[in-house]
Amino acid sequence: MELLRPDSLRLPSRHAQADAAQGDIEKARSIGDRASLRFVDWIWHISGSVPLAPEQSSDEALGKLVPLFRQPGTSYERTGDTLTFRKKDPVAQDKMSVFDDGILRIEKAVTGSVLQYHLTSRILLLCFLAPLLFLSFAGLTLVAGKFEKPPAKESKKKKDEVLPQNPIDKFLGAPAPEKPKKDGADKSEEDDNKLSPTSAYVFAALFASLYAVGRILESRLIRALFKKKLLES
Amino acid sequence: MDGVLVGKRLIGTQAPVTVGWENIPRVEGGPVKQFIFTWFQPTMLFALIAFWYYAPNSIAKTSTAIGIGIGFRVLLLALEWVNPRYESWRLTWKELVTDLFYVGLGFTVIGLAEYYIGSDAVIEAVQHSFDWHKLAWFTGLPLLVQAFLISFIFDFGQYWMHRGMHNWYPLWLPHSVHHYITQLNINKGAVGNPVELFLIGLGVGGFFDFLPRAVLLAGAISLGIGTYQHINVRFNSPRWWRFLFYTTEHHSLHHSQDYESTRSNYSNNFIFIDRMFGTCIDGEAELLGMEGGRRMSISEQMTYPFTEGWKAIKERFGRPVAVPAE
After folding, report:
1. What is the per-residue pLDDT for B199?
2. Which A positions 185-214 lie with beta carbon below 8 A of chain B?
3. What's the pTM value of the predicted model, to 2 decimals?
4. How many domains does chain A have?
Protein backbone atom coordinates (compact mmCIF):
# COMPACT_ATOMS: atom_id res chain seq x y z
CA MET A 1 0.00 0.00 0.00
CA GLU A 2 1.22 3.46 -0.87
CA LEU A 3 2.35 5.65 1.97
CA LEU A 4 -0.19 8.26 2.89
CA ARG A 5 0.76 11.75 1.96
CA PRO A 6 0.06 14.33 4.70
CA ASP A 7 -2.67 15.78 2.46
CA SER A 8 -4.63 12.56 2.55
CA LEU A 9 -4.35 12.49 6.35
CA ARG A 10 -6.77 15.38 6.62
CA LEU A 11 -8.97 15.29 9.65
CA PRO A 12 -12.51 13.98 9.25
CA SER A 13 -13.33 17.60 9.17
CA ARG A 14 -16.08 19.96 8.39
CA HIS A 15 -14.89 19.78 4.76
CA ALA A 16 -15.78 16.16 4.33
CA GLN A 17 -19.23 16.64 5.78
CA ALA A 18 -19.78 19.73 3.72
CA ASP A 19 -18.77 17.97 0.50
CA ALA A 20 -21.43 15.40 0.97
CA ALA A 21 -24.14 17.92 1.54
CA GLN A 22 -23.30 20.64 -0.96
CA GLY A 23 -23.92 20.85 -4.65
CA ASP A 24 -21.27 20.61 -7.36
CA ILE A 25 -20.51 24.32 -7.44
CA GLU A 26 -20.07 24.55 -3.69
CA LYS A 27 -18.06 21.36 -3.76
CA ALA A 28 -15.71 22.85 -6.32
CA ARG A 29 -15.42 25.98 -4.18
CA SER A 30 -14.67 23.86 -1.14
CA ILE A 31 -11.89 22.04 -2.97
CA GLY A 32 -10.54 25.42 -4.03
CA ASP A 33 -10.58 26.61 -0.42
CA ARG A 34 -8.70 23.53 0.69
CA ALA A 35 -6.14 24.00 -2.04
CA SER A 36 -5.55 27.59 -0.94
CA LEU A 37 -5.46 26.59 2.73
CA ARG A 38 -2.66 24.13 1.92
CA PHE A 39 -0.30 27.07 1.50
CA VAL A 40 -0.99 28.43 4.95
CA ASP A 41 -2.17 25.56 7.10
CA TRP A 42 1.42 24.61 7.99
CA ILE A 43 1.04 27.49 10.47
CA TRP A 44 -1.16 25.45 12.81
CA HIS A 45 -0.91 21.90 11.38
CA ILE A 46 1.84 19.47 12.31
CA SER A 47 2.35 16.27 10.32
CA GLY A 48 4.98 13.61 10.47
CA SER A 49 5.76 9.94 10.63
CA VAL A 50 7.51 7.52 12.93
CA PRO A 51 8.64 4.06 11.72
CA LEU A 52 7.33 1.17 13.77
CA ALA A 53 9.59 -1.50 15.17
CA PRO A 54 9.83 -4.60 12.92
CA GLU A 55 7.07 -7.10 13.68
CA GLN A 56 5.04 -4.48 15.58
CA SER A 57 1.40 -4.78 14.53
CA SER A 58 -0.78 -1.71 14.01
CA ASP A 59 -3.06 -2.87 16.81
CA GLU A 60 -0.14 -3.13 19.22
CA ALA A 61 1.27 0.25 18.13
CA LEU A 62 -2.01 2.12 18.58
CA GLY A 63 -2.53 0.32 21.88
CA LYS A 64 0.74 1.81 23.14
CA LEU A 65 -0.35 5.31 22.11
CA VAL A 66 -3.82 5.12 23.62
CA PRO A 67 -2.74 6.12 27.18
CA LEU A 68 -1.73 9.50 25.75
CA PHE A 69 -5.40 10.14 25.02
CA ARG A 70 -6.77 9.03 28.38
CA GLN A 71 -6.63 12.60 29.67
CA PRO A 72 -9.24 15.01 31.03
CA GLY A 73 -11.04 16.80 28.20
CA THR A 74 -9.85 14.33 25.54
CA SER A 75 -12.10 12.08 23.47
CA TYR A 76 -10.74 9.56 20.97
CA GLU A 77 -11.93 6.86 18.65
CA ARG A 78 -10.08 3.85 17.19
CA THR A 79 -11.27 2.46 13.87
CA GLY A 80 -9.04 -0.22 12.39
CA ASP A 81 -5.61 1.28 11.83
CA THR A 82 -6.76 4.80 12.56
CA LEU A 83 -7.10 6.80 15.75
CA THR A 84 -8.79 10.20 15.81
CA PHE A 85 -8.90 12.44 18.84
CA ARG A 86 -10.28 15.77 19.97
CA LYS A 87 -9.38 17.83 23.02
CA LYS A 88 -11.35 20.51 24.81
CA ASP A 89 -9.47 22.67 27.34
CA PRO A 90 -6.79 20.07 28.09
CA VAL A 91 -5.00 20.48 31.41
CA ALA A 92 -1.57 22.08 31.40
CA GLN A 93 -0.06 18.76 32.49
CA ASP A 94 -1.37 16.93 29.39
CA LYS A 95 1.69 16.11 27.24
CA MET A 96 -0.36 16.80 24.09
CA SER A 97 -2.12 19.92 25.36
CA VAL A 98 -0.79 21.98 22.46
CA PHE A 99 -3.03 20.07 20.05
CA ASP A 100 -6.79 20.36 19.69
CA ASP A 101 -7.48 17.45 17.37
CA GLY A 102 -5.73 15.04 15.06
CA ILE A 103 -5.56 11.77 13.27
CA LEU A 104 -3.02 8.96 13.61
CA ARG A 105 -2.84 6.10 11.11
CA ILE A 106 -0.60 3.07 10.70
CA GLU A 107 0.47 2.61 7.09
CA LYS A 108 2.42 -0.20 5.49
CA ALA A 109 5.39 0.84 3.37
CA VAL A 110 8.05 -1.15 1.56
CA THR A 111 10.46 -0.63 4.45
CA GLY A 112 7.92 -1.60 7.10
CA SER A 113 4.98 -0.10 8.95
CA VAL A 114 4.90 3.60 9.72
CA LEU A 115 2.82 5.77 12.04
CA GLN A 116 1.55 8.78 10.14
CA TYR A 117 0.08 11.65 12.12
CA HIS A 118 -1.59 14.93 11.35
CA LEU A 119 -2.37 17.27 14.23
CA THR A 120 -3.82 20.75 14.52
CA SER A 121 -3.04 23.35 17.15
CA ARG A 122 -5.08 26.47 17.81
CA ILE A 123 -2.43 27.91 20.16
CA LEU A 124 0.12 27.81 17.33
CA LEU A 125 -2.28 29.80 15.16
CA LEU A 126 -3.00 32.28 17.96
CA CYS A 127 0.72 32.71 18.64
CA PHE A 128 1.27 33.32 14.91
CA LEU A 129 -1.45 36.01 14.93
CA ALA A 130 -0.46 37.58 18.28
CA PRO A 131 2.15 39.95 16.73
CA LEU A 132 -0.64 41.49 14.65
CA LEU A 133 -2.69 42.07 17.80
CA PHE A 134 0.21 43.77 19.55
CA LEU A 135 0.98 45.85 16.47
CA SER A 136 -2.64 47.04 16.58
CA PHE A 137 -2.12 47.96 20.26
CA ALA A 138 0.94 49.93 19.20
CA GLY A 139 -1.22 51.77 16.65
CA LEU A 140 -3.83 52.46 19.32
CA THR A 141 -1.17 53.88 21.64
CA LEU A 142 0.17 56.12 18.88
CA VAL A 143 -3.34 57.44 18.19
CA ALA A 144 -3.92 58.01 21.93
CA GLY A 145 -0.59 59.87 22.14
CA LYS A 146 -1.63 62.22 19.32
CA PHE A 147 -4.73 63.28 21.21
CA GLU A 148 -2.80 63.84 24.43
CA LYS A 149 -2.54 67.48 25.52
CA PRO A 150 0.97 68.93 25.84
CA PRO A 151 2.13 69.17 29.49
CA ALA A 152 0.98 72.26 31.32
CA LYS A 153 3.57 75.02 31.58
CA GLU A 154 2.76 75.72 35.19
CA SER A 155 4.42 73.09 37.29
CA LYS A 156 3.19 72.21 40.73
CA LYS A 157 4.66 74.07 43.63
CA LYS A 158 6.12 70.93 45.09
CA LYS A 159 8.14 70.39 41.94
CA ASP A 160 10.26 73.44 42.67
CA GLU A 161 11.29 72.20 46.06
CA VAL A 162 14.22 69.90 46.74
CA LEU A 163 13.14 66.96 48.89
CA PRO A 164 14.70 66.92 52.34
CA GLN A 165 17.21 64.20 53.18
CA ASN A 166 17.00 62.49 56.54
CA PRO A 167 20.28 62.67 58.54
CA ILE A 168 20.34 58.86 58.79
CA ASP A 169 20.35 58.56 54.97
CA LYS A 170 23.06 61.22 54.77
CA PHE A 171 25.14 59.34 57.32
CA LEU A 172 24.69 56.04 55.46
CA GLY A 173 25.83 57.65 52.22
CA ALA A 174 22.65 57.61 50.13
CA PRO A 175 22.80 60.12 47.22
CA ALA A 176 21.14 63.44 48.06
CA PRO A 177 17.81 64.05 46.30
CA GLU A 178 18.25 66.20 43.23
CA LYS A 179 16.19 69.23 42.34
CA PRO A 180 13.22 68.18 40.20
CA LYS A 181 13.41 69.20 36.54
CA LYS A 182 11.52 72.38 35.67
CA ASP A 183 8.19 72.65 33.88
CA GLY A 184 7.15 69.17 34.90
CA ALA A 185 9.66 67.69 32.46
CA ASP A 186 10.03 64.56 34.52
CA LYS A 187 6.27 64.07 34.65
CA SER A 188 5.89 64.46 30.90
CA GLU A 189 8.75 62.00 30.42
CA GLU A 190 6.84 59.49 32.54
CA ASP A 191 3.63 60.11 30.56
CA ASP A 192 5.59 59.65 27.33
CA ASN A 193 6.66 56.22 28.59
CA LYS A 194 3.07 55.26 29.29
CA LEU A 195 1.97 56.39 25.86
CA SER A 196 4.91 54.81 24.09
CA PRO A 197 4.26 51.96 21.63
CA THR A 198 7.65 50.38 22.41
CA SER A 199 6.31 47.65 24.71
CA ALA A 200 3.71 46.68 22.09
CA TYR A 201 6.46 46.38 19.47
CA VAL A 202 8.59 44.32 21.89
CA PHE A 203 5.73 41.90 22.52
CA ALA A 204 4.97 41.65 18.79
CA ALA A 205 8.59 40.62 18.20
CA LEU A 206 8.53 38.30 21.21
CA PHE A 207 5.49 36.40 19.95
CA ALA A 208 6.94 36.15 16.45
CA SER A 209 10.03 34.48 17.95
CA LEU A 210 7.94 32.32 20.26
CA TYR A 211 5.97 31.12 17.24
CA ALA A 212 9.13 30.12 15.39
CA VAL A 213 10.43 28.29 18.48
CA GLY A 214 7.07 26.60 19.17
CA ARG A 215 6.50 25.47 15.60
CA ILE A 216 9.86 23.68 15.54
CA LEU A 217 9.94 22.56 19.18
CA GLU A 218 6.41 21.12 19.38
CA SER A 219 6.90 19.29 16.09
CA ARG A 220 10.03 17.63 17.49
CA LEU A 221 8.55 16.98 20.92
CA ILE A 222 5.48 15.21 19.59
CA ARG A 223 7.60 13.04 17.28
CA ALA A 224 9.88 12.14 20.19
CA LEU A 225 6.85 11.38 22.38
CA PHE A 226 5.26 9.06 19.81
CA LYS A 227 8.62 7.37 19.22
CA LYS A 228 9.18 6.86 22.94
CA LYS A 229 5.71 5.41 23.46
CA LEU A 230 6.01 3.07 20.48
CA LEU A 231 9.35 1.72 21.70
CA GLU A 232 8.14 1.18 25.29
CA SER A 233 8.13 -2.47 26.19
CA MET B 1 -10.94 13.41 52.95
CA ASP B 2 -10.82 14.25 56.66
CA GLY B 3 -9.01 17.57 56.42
CA VAL B 4 -7.01 19.38 59.09
CA LEU B 5 -8.50 21.69 61.70
CA VAL B 6 -6.82 25.13 61.51
CA GLY B 7 -8.41 27.42 64.10
CA LYS B 8 -12.12 26.90 63.53
CA ARG B 9 -11.69 25.93 59.89
CA LEU B 10 -11.43 22.47 58.38
CA ILE B 11 -8.81 22.63 55.60
CA GLY B 12 -8.28 20.08 52.85
CA THR B 13 -11.60 18.23 52.84
CA GLN B 14 -12.03 18.58 49.06
CA ALA B 15 -8.48 18.22 47.74
CA PRO B 16 -5.11 17.22 49.22
CA VAL B 17 -3.19 20.02 50.94
CA THR B 18 -0.21 20.09 53.29
CA VAL B 19 -0.63 22.12 56.46
CA GLY B 20 2.25 23.16 58.75
CA TRP B 21 5.84 24.06 57.86
CA GLU B 22 7.15 20.86 59.46
CA ASN B 23 5.29 18.82 56.80
CA ILE B 24 6.58 20.72 53.79
CA PRO B 25 9.41 19.01 51.84
CA ARG B 26 12.90 20.53 51.92
CA VAL B 27 15.25 21.17 48.99
CA GLU B 28 16.95 17.95 47.96
CA GLY B 29 20.63 17.88 46.99
CA GLY B 30 24.11 18.65 48.22
CA PRO B 31 25.20 21.40 50.66
CA VAL B 32 25.85 23.96 47.89
CA LYS B 33 22.36 23.54 46.47
CA GLN B 34 20.87 23.66 49.97
CA PHE B 35 22.80 26.86 50.72
CA ILE B 36 21.76 28.56 47.47
CA PHE B 37 18.08 27.73 47.81
CA THR B 38 18.03 28.75 51.48
CA TRP B 39 19.70 32.15 51.11
CA PHE B 40 18.70 33.15 47.56
CA GLN B 41 15.59 35.07 48.59
CA PRO B 42 17.10 37.13 51.46
CA THR B 43 20.27 37.83 49.44
CA MET B 44 18.33 39.08 46.43
CA LEU B 45 16.06 41.24 48.58
CA PHE B 46 18.96 42.91 50.38
CA ALA B 47 20.90 43.31 47.12
CA LEU B 48 17.92 45.02 45.46
CA ILE B 49 17.39 47.31 48.43
CA ALA B 50 21.11 48.18 48.57
CA PHE B 51 21.15 48.92 44.84
CA TRP B 52 18.23 51.33 44.96
CA TYR B 53 19.45 52.93 48.18
CA TYR B 54 22.87 53.79 46.79
CA ALA B 55 22.26 54.05 43.02
CA PRO B 56 23.30 57.48 41.66
CA ASN B 57 20.41 59.74 40.67
CA SER B 58 21.37 59.34 37.00
CA ILE B 59 20.39 55.64 36.98
CA ALA B 60 17.75 55.60 39.72
CA LYS B 61 14.80 55.78 37.34
CA THR B 62 11.82 53.74 36.18
CA SER B 63 13.46 52.39 33.04
CA THR B 64 16.26 50.86 35.15
CA ALA B 65 13.63 49.29 37.42
CA ILE B 66 11.82 47.76 34.42
CA GLY B 67 15.10 46.34 33.11
CA ILE B 68 15.99 44.84 36.50
CA GLY B 69 12.45 43.43 36.83
CA ILE B 70 12.69 41.66 33.46
CA GLY B 71 16.20 40.35 34.20
CA PHE B 72 15.11 39.05 37.60
CA ARG B 73 12.17 37.20 36.09
CA VAL B 74 14.41 35.59 33.47
CA LEU B 75 16.71 34.43 36.29
CA LEU B 76 13.73 32.99 38.18
CA LEU B 77 12.59 31.16 35.02
CA ALA B 78 16.03 29.54 34.96
CA LEU B 79 15.63 28.56 38.62
CA GLU B 80 12.27 26.96 37.79
CA TRP B 81 14.13 24.83 35.29
CA VAL B 82 16.89 23.87 37.75
CA ASN B 83 14.92 23.22 40.91
CA PRO B 84 11.18 22.82 40.33
CA ARG B 85 8.86 22.55 43.30
CA TYR B 86 6.67 20.09 41.40
CA GLU B 87 7.43 18.27 38.14
CA SER B 88 3.73 18.58 37.30
CA TRP B 89 4.14 22.38 37.23
CA ARG B 90 6.92 22.35 34.60
CA LEU B 91 6.58 25.28 32.21
CA THR B 92 5.60 24.18 28.71
CA TRP B 93 5.73 26.25 25.53
CA LYS B 94 1.94 26.60 25.56
CA GLU B 95 1.87 27.79 29.18
CA LEU B 96 4.69 30.26 28.50
CA VAL B 97 2.88 31.70 25.48
CA THR B 98 -0.40 32.00 27.39
CA ASP B 99 1.28 33.65 30.39
CA LEU B 100 3.23 36.09 28.24
CA PHE B 101 0.06 37.03 26.36
CA TYR B 102 -1.39 38.32 29.63
CA VAL B 103 1.90 40.00 30.60
CA GLY B 104 1.73 41.71 27.20
CA LEU B 105 -1.84 42.90 27.81
CA GLY B 106 -0.69 44.39 31.13
CA PHE B 107 2.11 46.32 29.45
CA THR B 108 -0.08 47.61 26.62
CA VAL B 109 -3.88 48.01 26.60
CA ILE B 110 -4.45 47.55 30.33
CA GLY B 111 -1.68 50.06 31.03
CA LEU B 112 -3.38 52.45 28.64
CA ALA B 113 -6.72 51.96 30.40
CA GLU B 114 -5.09 52.59 33.80
CA TYR B 115 -3.61 55.80 32.41
CA TYR B 116 -6.94 57.19 31.25
CA ILE B 117 -9.57 55.78 33.61
CA GLY B 118 -7.68 53.96 36.37
CA SER B 119 -5.74 54.99 39.40
CA ASP B 120 -3.25 57.04 37.34
CA ALA B 121 -6.01 59.44 36.32
CA VAL B 122 -7.45 59.67 39.85
CA ILE B 123 -4.01 60.16 41.44
CA GLU B 124 -3.20 62.91 38.94
CA ALA B 125 -6.41 64.73 39.94
CA VAL B 126 -5.74 64.29 43.68
CA GLN B 127 -2.12 65.42 43.36
CA HIS B 128 -3.23 68.65 41.69
CA SER B 129 -5.46 69.61 44.59
CA PHE B 130 -3.25 68.53 47.46
CA ASP B 131 -1.38 70.69 49.94
CA TRP B 132 2.04 69.06 49.83
CA HIS B 133 3.29 70.75 52.98
CA LYS B 134 1.00 68.43 54.93
CA LEU B 135 3.29 65.57 53.85
CA ALA B 136 6.50 67.21 55.04
CA TRP B 137 6.68 64.84 58.03
CA PHE B 138 6.63 61.89 55.63
CA THR B 139 9.20 63.20 53.16
CA GLY B 140 11.61 63.81 56.06
CA LEU B 141 11.54 60.18 57.21
CA PRO B 142 14.48 57.84 56.46
CA LEU B 143 14.22 56.40 52.96
CA LEU B 144 13.75 52.81 54.08
CA VAL B 145 10.91 53.80 56.41
CA GLN B 146 9.23 55.69 53.58
CA ALA B 147 9.68 52.68 51.28
CA PHE B 148 8.29 50.26 53.85
CA LEU B 149 5.28 52.49 54.54
CA ILE B 150 4.52 52.83 50.82
CA SER B 151 4.79 49.02 50.41
CA PHE B 152 2.67 48.40 53.47
CA ILE B 153 -0.08 50.87 52.50
CA PHE B 154 -0.19 49.36 49.00
CA ASP B 155 -0.26 45.79 50.33
CA PHE B 156 -2.89 46.63 52.92
CA GLY B 157 -5.13 47.96 50.12
CA GLN B 158 -4.40 44.89 47.98
CA TYR B 159 -5.25 42.61 50.90
CA TRP B 160 -8.73 44.07 51.25
CA MET B 161 -9.28 44.25 47.50
CA HIS B 162 -8.30 40.57 47.21
CA ARG B 163 -10.36 39.56 50.23
CA GLY B 164 -13.27 41.49 48.76
CA MET B 165 -12.89 39.56 45.52
CA HIS B 166 -13.30 36.30 47.44
CA ASN B 167 -16.34 37.50 49.35
CA TRP B 168 -18.43 39.63 47.00
CA TYR B 169 -19.79 37.93 43.88
CA PRO B 170 -19.43 40.89 41.44
CA LEU B 171 -15.74 41.10 42.32
CA TRP B 172 -15.32 37.32 42.47
CA LEU B 173 -16.50 36.95 38.85
CA PRO B 174 -13.49 38.67 37.25
CA HIS B 175 -11.08 37.21 39.85
CA SER B 176 -12.38 33.64 39.49
CA VAL B 177 -10.71 33.34 36.07
CA HIS B 178 -7.28 33.62 37.73
CA HIS B 179 -8.19 30.70 39.99
CA TYR B 180 -8.56 28.35 37.02
CA ILE B 181 -4.77 28.13 36.60
CA THR B 182 -3.61 24.60 37.38
CA GLN B 183 0.06 25.30 38.09
CA LEU B 184 2.25 28.14 39.32
CA ASN B 185 4.95 29.67 37.13
CA ILE B 186 6.70 32.99 37.32
CA ASN B 187 4.32 34.85 34.98
CA LYS B 188 1.08 33.22 36.16
CA GLY B 189 0.30 36.26 38.32
CA ALA B 190 -0.58 38.07 35.10
CA VAL B 191 -3.15 35.48 33.98
CA GLY B 192 -6.72 36.62 34.50
CA ASN B 193 -9.63 38.46 32.99
CA PRO B 194 -8.59 41.98 31.88
CA VAL B 195 -11.25 43.51 34.15
CA GLU B 196 -9.55 41.91 37.15
CA LEU B 197 -6.11 42.91 35.92
CA PHE B 198 -7.42 46.47 35.71
CA LEU B 199 -8.91 46.29 39.23
CA ILE B 200 -5.79 44.76 40.77
CA GLY B 201 -3.73 47.49 39.08
CA LEU B 202 -5.70 50.11 40.97
CA GLY B 203 -3.54 51.24 43.81
CA VAL B 204 -2.08 54.13 45.63
CA GLY B 205 1.52 53.43 44.59
CA GLY B 206 1.49 56.16 41.95
CA PHE B 207 0.37 58.66 44.56
CA PHE B 208 3.90 58.67 45.96
CA ASP B 209 5.65 59.41 42.68
CA PHE B 210 6.89 62.70 44.15
CA LEU B 211 9.25 60.50 46.22
CA PRO B 212 11.02 58.76 43.34
CA ARG B 213 13.69 56.92 45.30
CA ALA B 214 11.29 55.72 48.00
CA VAL B 215 8.92 54.44 45.30
CA LEU B 216 11.77 52.62 43.53
CA LEU B 217 12.79 51.08 46.86
CA ALA B 218 9.18 50.04 47.51
CA GLY B 219 9.15 48.48 44.04
CA ALA B 220 12.36 46.60 44.89
CA ILE B 221 10.77 45.27 48.08
CA SER B 222 7.77 44.11 46.08
CA LEU B 223 10.04 42.51 43.44
CA GLY B 224 12.17 40.80 46.08
CA ILE B 225 9.18 39.36 47.97
CA GLY B 226 5.97 39.34 45.92
CA THR B 227 7.52 37.85 42.77
CA TYR B 228 7.74 34.46 44.49
CA GLN B 229 3.94 34.21 44.79
CA HIS B 230 3.64 32.36 41.50
CA ILE B 231 6.82 30.37 41.01
CA ASN B 232 7.64 26.72 40.58
CA VAL B 233 10.82 26.68 42.69
CA ARG B 234 11.43 24.82 45.94
CA PHE B 235 13.11 27.11 48.51
CA ASN B 236 14.08 26.47 52.11
CA SER B 237 12.89 29.94 53.08
CA PRO B 238 14.29 30.89 56.52
CA ARG B 239 11.83 30.75 59.37
CA TRP B 240 11.77 34.58 59.86
CA TRP B 241 11.19 35.06 56.12
CA ARG B 242 8.10 32.86 55.97
CA PHE B 243 6.73 34.40 59.17
CA LEU B 244 6.94 37.94 57.77
CA PHE B 245 6.74 37.52 54.01
CA TYR B 246 4.38 35.89 51.57
CA THR B 247 5.76 32.65 50.05
CA THR B 248 4.95 30.31 47.17
CA GLU B 249 3.69 27.81 49.73
CA HIS B 250 1.10 30.31 50.99
CA HIS B 251 -0.04 31.09 47.48
CA SER B 252 -0.24 27.49 46.31
CA LEU B 253 -2.64 26.85 49.18
CA HIS B 254 -4.65 29.90 48.12
CA HIS B 255 -4.94 28.34 44.62
CA SER B 256 -5.75 24.85 45.90
CA GLN B 257 -8.74 22.88 44.60
CA ASP B 258 -9.92 22.85 48.22
CA TYR B 259 -12.44 25.70 48.62
CA GLU B 260 -11.72 26.44 52.29
CA SER B 261 -7.98 26.78 51.56
CA THR B 262 -8.62 29.38 48.87
CA ARG B 263 -10.18 31.63 51.48
CA SER B 264 -6.80 32.32 53.06
CA ASN B 265 -3.50 34.12 52.35
CA TYR B 266 -4.81 37.22 50.59
CA SER B 267 -1.86 39.62 50.86
CA ASN B 268 0.85 40.20 48.26
CA ASN B 269 4.10 40.81 50.10
CA PHE B 270 3.52 40.83 53.85
CA ILE B 271 1.89 37.64 55.15
CA PHE B 272 1.79 39.26 58.60
CA ILE B 273 -1.23 41.23 57.33
CA ASP B 274 -3.02 37.88 56.95
CA ARG B 275 -1.75 36.87 60.39
CA MET B 276 -3.16 40.14 61.80
CA PHE B 277 -6.63 39.39 60.43
CA GLY B 278 -6.63 35.64 61.04
CA THR B 279 -6.65 34.58 57.38
CA CYS B 280 -3.14 33.08 57.23
CA ILE B 281 -2.62 29.34 56.78
CA ASP B 282 0.95 28.03 56.59
CA GLY B 283 1.01 25.15 54.12
CA GLU B 284 1.06 24.23 50.44
CA ALA B 285 -0.82 22.38 47.70
CA GLU B 286 0.05 20.76 44.38
CA LEU B 287 -3.41 20.21 42.90
CA LEU B 288 -4.62 23.66 41.88
CA GLY B 289 -7.58 25.13 40.07
CA MET B 290 -11.35 25.11 40.01
CA GLU B 291 -13.92 22.53 38.96
CA GLY B 292 -11.50 19.71 39.60
CA GLY B 293 -8.67 21.35 37.65
CA ARG B 294 -10.49 22.26 34.43
CA ARG B 295 -8.30 24.54 32.31
CA MET B 296 -9.95 27.57 30.76
CA SER B 297 -9.18 28.57 27.19
CA ILE B 298 -8.11 32.18 26.57
CA SER B 299 -11.46 32.95 24.89
CA GLU B 300 -13.38 31.68 27.92
CA GLN B 301 -11.09 33.63 30.24
CA MET B 302 -12.05 36.77 28.34
CA THR B 303 -15.80 36.22 28.46
CA TYR B 304 -16.42 34.17 31.63
CA PRO B 305 -17.19 37.03 34.08
CA PHE B 306 -19.70 38.50 31.64
CA THR B 307 -21.47 35.25 30.72
CA GLU B 308 -21.62 34.12 34.35
CA GLY B 309 -22.67 37.60 35.47
CA TRP B 310 -25.46 37.63 32.90
CA LYS B 311 -26.65 34.22 34.11
CA ALA B 312 -26.67 35.47 37.71
CA ILE B 313 -28.62 38.61 36.77
CA LYS B 314 -31.18 36.58 34.81
CA GLU B 315 -31.55 34.21 37.73
CA ARG B 316 -32.12 37.02 40.16
CA PHE B 317 -34.18 39.48 38.16
CA GLY B 318 -35.52 37.39 35.28
CA ARG B 319 -39.19 36.66 34.88
CA PRO B 320 -40.18 33.37 36.44
CA VAL B 321 -40.94 30.79 33.78
CA ALA B 322 -44.65 29.99 33.66
CA VAL B 323 -45.31 26.41 34.67
CA PRO B 324 -48.42 24.93 33.04
CA ALA B 325 -51.03 23.84 35.53
CA GLU B 326 -51.49 20.14 35.87
Report:
1. 79
2. 190-191, 193-195, 199-200, 203, 206-207, 210, 213-214
3. 0.84
4. 2
